[in-house]
Amino acid sequence: MRRPRRFTRTAHLGVGAELFERASRSLLNWDMHRGAGLVVVVDGPATLGRTVTLRPRSGPAAWLRVSAPCEVTEVVDDDAARGFTYRTLPGHPERGWESFVVTHDAATGR
User: Fold this and answer.
1) Which of 8, 34, 52, 106 is exposed most, by the fewest CB atoms within 10 A?
2) How far apart are CA 100 and CA 91, in angstroms?
């Protein structure tokens, strides 16, 4: 059995509550996935239990019609963090969970 891999990436987006609101809204509406070159097949924002299917827009995987179905298993929505976790579903080329979270430090505005 393969050992699970853990990968974390953090990026500073800027400063301010308005930026946090925009980034949160964009994340929950799948704009980050679309910006990464994926076709997002979903009926609405990331909410608990929602199913989404992701497909590459271009490249060999698109030509092979690879699709990646996922289910949202957790949603974070508070003053300091917003985002979601999804798990892969049967038919996804990988197995596991992935989380996407935007955080806001009210003290520094970051």
Assistant:
1) 8
2) 22
Three-state secondary-structure class, residue 20 = helix
Amino acid at 30: W
Q: 43-67, pLDDT tens digit by residue?
A: 999 999 999 999 988 877 666 778 9
Query: Where in the chain does DSSP place strands (E)?
Result: 38-41, 51-56, 68-77, 81-88, 97-103
Nearest to 86 by CA among 95, 77, 78: 95
C-alpha–C-alpha distance, residues 43 and 26, integer Å: 15
Q: What is the pLDDT of residue 101?
A: 96
Tokens matching residue 13 = 């987006």
Which is nearest to 42 in space by CA: 57, 26, 23, 29?
A: 29
Tell me if 57 sits within 8 A of 37, measured CB to CB: yes
Q: Which residues does 62 contact at the CB level (< 8 Å), separation at least 6?
A: 55, 56
Asked if the model's pLDDT at residue 24 lies above 70, the reply is yes
